[in-house]
Design a protein that fits this description.
The protein is an alpha/beta fold and about 190 residues long. It has eight helices and eight strands, in the order αβαββαβαβαββαβαα.
Length: about 190
């Protein structure tokens, strides 16, 4: 979602996947997930990792919700209109617009995802969101100090919102030797959390 054109192309690609497979259902409600399971189908949830293409257009966010978007990362590593990503040296946190953005996500029912957010952005998201916040894919900073991993303070803040934390299984994000990373290294992150 790095441009308005990219958003349209992405929506078309996503919809084509849902239209191409009779075993795949676009899940926009919990009942869609339950019905897919009951009918031995797979439920897909529309997510996105970047908000840059939205600019400050909250109406476009509304349109994405109508399309089926249900989980949205606030940043993708760098600074955008919403906040600072995990690769930003400033660690500036959520912007004034970002507070409005999070409020709109909450109103619509789009889950706030902090997977690629910087520490202060994650903490701010937890502070300003009235709904559970997640980190869909991250690791433990205390095990492997990588910019994509989160601190204990962030984990506790996410947990205090009622949110969840997903652990990635990407060798270069969880262990200092990606060529010798094992499933045990992934499990170490899961056990810690």
């Amino acid at each position: 979602l790095s441009s308005a054109e990219g958003i349209l192309m992405s929506m078309a690609d996503v919809q084509q996947q849902f239209d191409s497979f009779d075993w795949l259902v676009k899940a926009v409600t919990v009942d869609d997930i339950k019905n897919a399971k009951k009918n031995n189908l797979k439920a897909g949830i529309v997510t996105a990792q970047e908000t840059k293409g939205l600019g400050t257009n909250l109406e476009l966010l509304d349109s994405l919700y109508d399309f089926g978007l249900r989980v949205l990362q606030l940043t993708y590593n760098t600074q955008n209109f919403v906040g600072a990503g995990c690769a930003e040296k400033s660690n500036a946190g959520v912007t004034n617009f970002g507070i409005k953005f999070i409020e709109r996500l909450n109103e619509l029912g789009i889950v706030v995802d902090t997977g690629h957010c910087g520490k202060q952005t994650t903490l701010d998201a937890c502070r300003y969101s009235t709904r559970p916040v997640i980190a869909s894919h991250t690791g433990v900073e205390g095990i492997f100090n990588h910019m994509r991993c989160k601190s204990d303070e962030e984990f506790k803040a996410i947990a205090n919102t009622g949110g969840v934390i997903g652990v990635f299984a990407m060798p270069w994000f969880i262990h200092d030797d990606p060529n010798n990373t094992t499933m045990n290294h992934v499990i170490d992150h899961i056990d810690y959390i």
